[in-house]
Specification:
about 110 residues; single chain; two-stranded antiparallel sheet; alpha+beta; elongated
């Protein structure tokens, strides 16, 4: 049975996750030393764009200067979601929507 190869996009995402804050550059996917041992990827920016737009991955682009050239370094930013729960005895938000407006200390709520 023939083993299915990873797509270029999957290879880029895998290396981004493995490298962490170090990130990746186009040079990481060029011959002779392709970072993941696979065939070269010549359009890294296109693969990064695909990860961002189609897969919702957050990737930051940092620009570095190497001599006269400007090199893009891509770094994965993990999204961390915080789940909060309301205490059992907390008032329901819908109750607050139906409550009368707060009273004014000077005028009272009718005139406020």
């Amino acid at each position: 049975m023939k083993r299915q190869r990873m797509t270029q996009t999957a290879r880029v995402e895998q290396l981004l996750r493995r490298r962490g804050e170090l990130g990746i550059t186009a040079a990481d996917f060029l011959l002779p030393d392709v970072a993941d041992g696979g065939p070269p990827i010549l359009r890294l920016a296109a693969r990064v764009d695909e990860l961002r737009s189609r897969h919702g991955v957050t990737i930051v682009t940092l620009f570095e200067h190497k001599g006269d050239a400007r090199v893009a370094r891509y770094v994965l930013r993990e999204q961390h979601f915080v789940t909060a729960s309301m205490p059992v005895n907390a008032p329901d938000a819908s109750d607050q929507l139906l409550a009368p407006p707060p009273r004014s200390a000077v005028l009272g709520w009718e005139e406020a």
